[in-house]
Every structure is written in structure tokens, then in C-alpha cells.
Design goal:
Layout lengths: L2 H11 L3 E7 L5 E8 L4 E4 L1 H4 L3 E6 L4 E3 L1 H4 L5 H15 L5 E3 L6 E6 L9 E5 L28 E6 L12 E11 L8 E4 L11 E4 L4 E9 L10 E6 L1 H9 L5 H20 L1
Antiparallel strand pairs: 1-2, 1-4, 2-3, 3-8, 5-6, 7-8, 9-10, 9-12, 10-11, 11-14, 12-13, 13-14
Length: 273
């Protein structure tokens, strides 16, 4: 994947990202990540939110809004004339940057019954309509085999804290998929990526070069005597995400439509065969 493809994936999905600021039981503060998959539903890692007090969940990248939303007090006729003039000059409708408010959690977080699965979902009530939506893949564990994945590329997005900065910043990186494993502590497939597993990436998303979510970033696999950023970055694959969404009846319309399109495509392929 070249830098242009990576930037396209970044810009398509950056506004779907939010940081998760939590207070631990010790009273210390920590940060993780979450990503929007439609209808206000967000995916994160279990260990980011379980038994912790959620202080704030907030996106940091601005969404694009129209002049009418940017200047609501201006009469609509004036706005239309303004937009028409700028569209003629620029060749496209003028858009403006808008930084959304902190998210208001409507329900959740919810977790799989199996405590070994490092996954959580919640729904927010005030997600801006222009916020990005990450498309989940449908590579269930039984369908994952080595040929399509080994040495393919991914883009990771999350909020590892940057020293000497005063606020969270969305961090992106390109990574190579080394392999996939089923670690002893989890019943599901994890992809192993070449990126550095920094704290704060947990709950973020790994996007496959094909454009869909490879899975949710969970942890750095390491032995006890290694620092966390010297391990391997592990990404929990999508099967448990789909299962949890179904169990909680939170599957967004966008993901249902993606599933239907995929199944229709499989049907056409079988008929042509």
C-alpha cells in the first residue's frame, strides 16, 4: 500500500475515531480509543472501560458541514446565494470544519459473556451525522487463512498519549500483517502487526488495505520481562464484534447493508461458476 492509499484510508475514517478518557479504580487517569461503526455505536477494547469510570469520549478530527449549519442565524435565502456563488467559483459546494462536542453515552458499555474476549461496545446519542463510519470486515475466524493476509498492509488509528502534549491527538501508522494467531488467553483469531503497540492504541481500529476493519486493537503480546512497546501489536478479528452486536441488538444499519451486499456478491459468483 503506497502513501496515497494510506492517506485515503486515514481521511475516510479519521472522524470515526474518538478517545476514551477513563479514571481507574486507583484514581489514576488513562486513555484508550474507540471507533464508530454507524448509528452511534462505538467499538473499543474491554480493558479500556471495564470497571473504570468513563470521564469523556470525544472525537478530535473535525467533520465537514455546510454553510447553513455553520451559520444558522443567517437567512436561508442569503445562505443559498452565498453557497451558489462559491460553488461557481470553487467548482464544488463550500464546506466548513466543525469540531463535535464530547459524546453522550446512551447505553453500555456492553461486553461478551466470555471475559477472555477483550471487547466492548456502547452507543452514543449525539454523534454528528457527518461523522465517519468504519466498515467492518466479514472475515470470520473459520474463513481466515494465510494467503490473503500475510504481508498485506494495514493502517492503524488510535490515541496513544504523546509526551509533552496537553491533549489527545489522533495517531496513525502504516503496518504490515506478520501473521495471525489464536493466543492462549483468547478464543478468537488475533492478527499480529508490525506497528509499535503503544498504550492508548487499545480500542482503536486496524484497517486492512482493502478498506474494511481488520479488527480492534487490543494489546501488545509480550513476556513479563519486556516493556509493553517491545511486544507484538495484537488485533482482535471481527467475528466477536459481530457476535456482540447481534447479542446486544446494536448492529448498525450500515453493517447489515454491507452483509447483504457481500452475500449477494457471493450468490452471483456461485451462479457464474
Amino acid at each position: 500500500m503506497d502513501s496515497r492509499q494510506a492517506r485515503i484510508l486515514y481521511h475516510k475514517n479519521a472522524t470515526a475515531m474518538a478517545y476514551v478518557d477513563v479514571e481507574l479504580r486507583s484514581g489514576d487517569r488513562s486513555i484508550g480509543s474507540a471507533f464508530h461503526i454507524g448509528d452511534g455505536v462505538y467499538v473499543t477494547a474491554r480493558h479500556v472501560v471495564e470497571n473504570n469510570k468513563i470521564v469523556e469520549v470525544k472525537a478530535t478530527d473535525p467533520v465537514s458541514i455546510t454553510a447553513g449549519e455553520m451559520f444558522p442565524s443567517i437567512p436561508s435565502g442569503t445562505i443559498k446565494e452565498y453557497e451558489s456563488s462559491l460553488t461557481e467559483i470553487m467548482g464544488h459546494e463550500p464546506m466548513f470544519k466543525h469540531w463535535p462536542d464530547a459524546l453522550e453515552i446512551e447505553c453500555g458499555p456492553f461486553f461478551p459473556e466470555d471475559t477472555r474476549i477483550d471487547l466492548a461496545v456502547f452507543r452514543a446519542s449525539n454523534v454528528h451525522p457527518a461523522a465517519g463510519v468504519v466498515d467492518l470486515g466479514f472475515h470470520y475466524d473459520d474463513w481466515v487463512y494465510r494467503y490473503p493476509w500475510a504481508l498485506s498492509d494495514a493502517v492503524i488509528l488510535g490515541y496513544p498519549p504523546i509526551p509533552l502534549t496537553s491533549s489527545p491527538h489522533l495517531v496513525s501508522a502504516r503496518a504490515e500483517i506478520h501473521t495471525f494467531v489464536q493466543p492462549w488467553h483468547s478464543p478468537h483469531v488475533h492478527f499480529i502487526l508490525s506497528a509499535t503497540p503503544r498504550g492508548g492504541f487499545s480500542g482503536g481500529v486496524a484497517l486492512h488495505e482493502g478498506g474494511v476493519a481488520l479488527g480492534v486493537i487490543t494489546s501488545g503480546l509480550r513476556t513479563d520481562n519486556l516493556a509493553s512497546d517491545l511486544g507484538f501489536m495484537a488485533v482482535l478479528s471481527v467475528e466477536p464484534i459481530h457476535v456482540l452486536l447481534k447479542d446486544t441488538e446494536l448492529t448498525p444499519t450500515r453493517q447489515k447493508e454491507n452483509w447483504k451486499r457481500m452475500m449477494q456478491g457471493c450468490g452471483r459468483k456461485r451462479r457464474s461458476d
